[in-house]
User: Fold this.
Amino acid sequence: MSTIFTTIVLLTLTAVLRAEEPDIAALAELHTNEAASYAISLDEGQQQPLERQKEPVFKWQNLLHDKGQLGAVYVWTREERPERLETIFSQHENQQRAVVHEFHTLSERVLAVRSPKGLYREWRPKGSFPLKPLANAPAVSDNAQQRLLQLRNLARKFSAVTHIGNERTEMRLAPRPLVRYQPTRNDVLDGALFAFLSSAAGTDPEVVLMIEARHADSKTKDWTWHPGVARLTDRDLVVTRNNVELFSSIADHRLKAKVEDNYRWTHNPDDTYYVFRAKEIPEFPAAKAKPTTTKL
Assistant:
């Protein structure tokens, strides 16, 4: 087969594949509308509602799925501090589009959730998000720009690895934080969210690391660094810093994620992590393929 003929075939296949994919902007609108359909509060009476950031903090793609997955990560805040992490993604299945909702609380309180009607499951977290003082950490700087450098340097010291059977996959840290925040609260000075991405599946975020400069308790006036781990994977997960475990679902079975109903629903024991197939909708029309001009 000649080089010219091979090039023509490859370009034709690329155009066909592009023509079969839904429009990216339409999928982005779908994901944002799904994210906006919830009402979240720190209390059952919805008197302390969380605010959803209008734009996703991260857009991602999983290349391992047969038809590909596209998703977006959203953050909900209270007094400018992230309290809830949400990723909405969708995929083509059996001439339809499956829409998946995935959550993790970042709150020190048990969140009150009002879900939209008609979903396969409803998220009702029963626990909060633990943050523990970080041993052997540098003193928190008084300068905001210096603290950002400290946050980045601290994040680089962590590693995240998923396990399934004998397969071990180390994730890579995204180059920039998803969010950097300086709340209006008295007990939290500064913080950031960092994503660890799948090394094999594209840019799918499977772990989010929160690092905060905060008081260790109500009596302490000094600021200290506190990390916490939010999983976005059903695999066993181990997160370490300098070979010291911060999170391990292998060592602590209470941290394991349980897969239910033939992968339609996955959660941990206190439902602080929760992912489910929310609905199936008609597949979007394929995007119009852009004409390709090639010099032979």
